[in-house]
Amino acid sequence: MCIAYLAWQSHPDWPLFIAANRDEFHARPARPAVPWEDHPGVIAGIDEAAGGTWLGVTRQGRFAVLTNYRDLNLSGPSNPVSRGELVKNFLTSQDSALDYAEQAAVQGGMYAGFNLLIGDRQHASYVSNQWPGPRHAQTLTPGRYVVSNHLLDTAWPKTERLREVLNHFPVEHLERSVNRVFELLKDNTQAPDHELPHTGLSLEKERLLSSPFIVSPDYGTRCSTVIAIHKSGRALFSELTYDRQGQPVERHDWPWQLPD
Q1: CA distance 229 to 137
Q2: For the residues 156-164, what does the mean pLDDT come to?
Q3: Closest-CA residue to 246 (of 211, 214, 206, 212)
Q4: Average pLDDT, integer, range 41-70
Q5: pLDDT, mean of residues 245-259
Q6: Using CB atoms within 10 A of its CB, is residue 73 exposed (0-12), middle (13-18) or buried (19+)?
Q7: Given this model, what pLDDT does residue 135 score?
Q8: How far apart are CA 241 and CA 248, in angstroms?
Q9: Among residues 135, 140, 157, 136, which one has the least CA distance to residue 148?
């Protein structure tokens, strides 16, 4: 994942609302979101290159979102574990969000740079292995958060664009407005050069990656995802996948009811 918006316990009717884009090389094989055969309570895509996933939810209301931390000037482990394992393992475990995030913080050196947002119906946590100082997890308070390829709520142009439109989105009408969320996620407006971050890429690539939705022949937004849970327990997972030209090619919708 390369950008994700999380509204956590910030709306009286919809305590969970996630809207996210996954950016990846088009040549990297992946399967769209479905209930997993070996864990039918999990709904998520599958990275066929490494076996993990980038975003998912369970029928009990556990969720996890991963983004890569981008800074080519930083060194990482010589033989890193796939970051997609962080999402997969949380969704298939029974660990609390905070306990799991603390474990991920301690073990962060095994992975290349990452951001991880995880939670359940009661708690949510954030962890990155790129924080300065001692590694630790952050318990999230009710609010609205955006993460891209830097730390949580870093004010990159793309995160601020997405925050602005989704903060004003009428979440109370979400069930009949999922298509509108997909439209908002498909914002390919690039930032002016003076606002671009400096992550070690060329200026041309920084421009390309500066929009919430990315289109290029080799690398771009592969899918957009909306996850939401209503206070009544009604839940939805909607995913729209795209081709190299940024055109939608497949959609999956998974509505369900959480257990009491």
Answers
A1: 24
A2: 98
A3: 214
A4: 97
A5: 97
A6: exposed
A7: 74
A8: 6
A9: 157
| Tokens matching residue 156 | 């990159």
Please report, for the domain that includes residue 169, its CATH number. Answer: 3.60.60.10
What per-residue confidence (pLDDT) applies to 121?
83
Whole-angstrom Cα distance, residue 221 to residue 207? 15
In the chain, the number of structural domains is 1
Residue 133 clears pLDDT 90, i.e. is over it: no
Residue entry with tokens 């997969």: 88
Q: What are residue 136's phi and psi, to 5 degrees?
A: -160, 165
Structure tokens at 248: 């939608």
Domain extent, residue 236, equals 3-257
Confidence tier at 3 by pLDDT (50, 70, 90): very high
CA gap 200, 189 in Å, rounded: 21
Residue type at position 200: G
